[in-house]
Amino acid sequence: MPLLKALIQDQPLLISSLIQYSAQYHGEREIVTRTIDKNIHRITYSALYKRTQRLAHALESLGAEPGDRIGTIAWNSFRHLEVYYATSGIGCICHTVNPRLFTEQLIYIINHAEDKFLFIDSSFIELVEQLSPSLKGVKGVIVMCAKEEMFETTLDNIHCYETLIAGHEDHYAWPSFDENTASSLCYTSGTTGNPKGVLYSHRSTVLHSWCVSSVDTLGICNKDSLLVIVPMFHANAWGTPYAAPMSGAKMVFPGPHLDGESLVELIENEDITVSAAVPTVWLGILQYLKKTGKKLGTLERVAIGGTAAPPIMVRTLQEEYGVQVCHAWGMTEMSPLGTTGVLKKDSLSLPKEEQYKLQEKQGRGIYGVEMKIVDDNGLELPRDGVAFGNLMVRGPWIASRYFKDEGGEVLDPDGWFPTGDVATLDSEGYMQITDRAKDVIKSGGEWIGSIELENVAMEHEGVAECAVIGVFHPKWDERPLLVVVRESGSTVTPEELLKFFVGKVAKWWTPDDVVFVPELPHTPTGKVLKTKLRKEFSGHVLPTVS
Ligand code: AMP
439-536 architecture in CATH? Predict the structure, then answer.
C-alpha cells in the first residue's frame, strides 16, 4: 500500500517567524540590556523588530549574500539579538565567536568560517585590530554602538552600527526557503586540536526553541522575565534568545557584567523569574548573597549546566533562596539541550534526600533526544543506573557532521553521535554523567568518576572550587588527586578533606592526596581545564607510592 500524503500546509520552520511573531503578539514586552558602560537600555519587541528589518536591508547593501557567514564578537545585548535575527532571516549564517579564546584560535575560527563581516562590541576593537592582518576574508567590521561611542581605530572598512541601519526602511519581506538551510554556526571549545564548527539549521533551531520553552524543560513563557546569563557566543546562549520570542517573554541581557553584584541587581530590578548559567556564575552570585545578606527577589527557577551542578549549590539555591534548580546537560553539538532535571511525578513523592540524589543526576531524557550508553565495542549497556558507558545521542537538533567535514564521519552507522561523555541511564530515564571519557580515572582496570568525588569535596565548607584528576601510580596505573581552591579564610588540611570522604564513596574511590592551588584553569566556557591540570601535576608523587 502506498503511503498517503497528508493534507497539511508545508510551511518551513524559519527563524524570521520567531521575531515576527513576538513583534506582532507581544510587541510591548521589553528587552533590557546592561550596556558596556553599565547603563540600562530598554527596547520593546516591536521596536527591536523594526531595527532588525533595517539591519537586514543594511546587510544587503553592504553586499551580504545568502550563505555568507557573518561573525559576531559581542556580549549579550539587544544589538546582538538583532544580528542573530537579521543575518539568519536573509539566509546568512550568524557565526558567534567566543572572545575569550586565544588569539590563534580566534584567527583560525574566523578564517575557517570565512566570515565576510564582523559585528563587534566597541570593547573588542583593539582585539580585532590585532587579529585584522591575519583575517583573510573579512570585508568589513561593524562596531555595535552609536556614532558618538565610536573609537579611533586603524581598521579599514569600519562601520558604526547605528549609522549603518539609520537610513534603511523598517520593513523587510523575509524570504521563504528550505528549513534545512544553515542559520548559525558555533565552534566547539575543544580542549585539544582545532575547534570544530557546528552548523545549525532553521529547522533545528525552531524545534529546539519549542523544546526549551516546554514546561518540563525551562518552561519559558509570557509571564517570565528571563535573565540571559549564558553568553550568546556559547551554544547560542543555550537557545534562549530563540525560545523567548516564541512566547514574548521579557529578555534581560547583562552585557559583560557577570559578577555577582551586577547580576543580583538585575534580578532585583527587572523582576527576573528564570535564568540559566554555568556553576561558576552561580558560585559568584551565592558568594555575593552570603556577603550582603541579599535574596533573589522574584527568581523562581534556574537551569545549571555546562559542568556538573555541585549538589551543595542546588541545595542552597532551593532551601535558602527558594529557587528551583533544573540541572541540565547538553553540548554545542546538541544545540545544546539534551536532558533536564525536572523531576517526574513519581519522583516528587520521594523523601527530600532522595529527590536531591536525583537532582545530582544531569536530568532525564527529553522528547527529541534519544540516548543510549554503550561499551567500548558499541554494545548497548543496561539502563539500570549502575552500568556506565559511552553516551550516544540522536535527534533532530543534533549535529550530523562538523562544518567543512572536519573530523570526517562522526555518526555511527545507525546515526548515533558519540558525546564523549561517560554516563549511567536508569530505568526512569534519568542520566548521570560520571565523566568526560578522557577524564575518567583508570585505577587497577576499574573506572573512577571524577564528578562524584568533586561533588563530595564541594560539600565541605572549606572548598571553594575543586577538580579531581588521575595521576600516575605504579601499581594502579592511576589514582585520584584532589586539587582544591580553599574558601577564603579557610585553613582546611588535606587530612580533614580526605576524612570527609569516609562513608560517602567507596573506599577505593577516595583520592590518594590533596593539593591546594590559588585558582583552577578554566576553558573559555567555564569548564575546568583538566588537560592543563594533568600536565601540571604529571610529576606529582602520591603518598601512596611506596
Ligand atoms: P560544550 O559543547 O562546550 O557546551 O560542552 C559540552 C560538554 O560539557 C558535555 O559533553 C559535558 O562533558 C559537559 N557538560 C555539560 N553539561 C554538563 C552537566 N550538567 N554536568 C556535567 N557535564 C556537563
Answer: 2-Layer Sandwich (3.30)
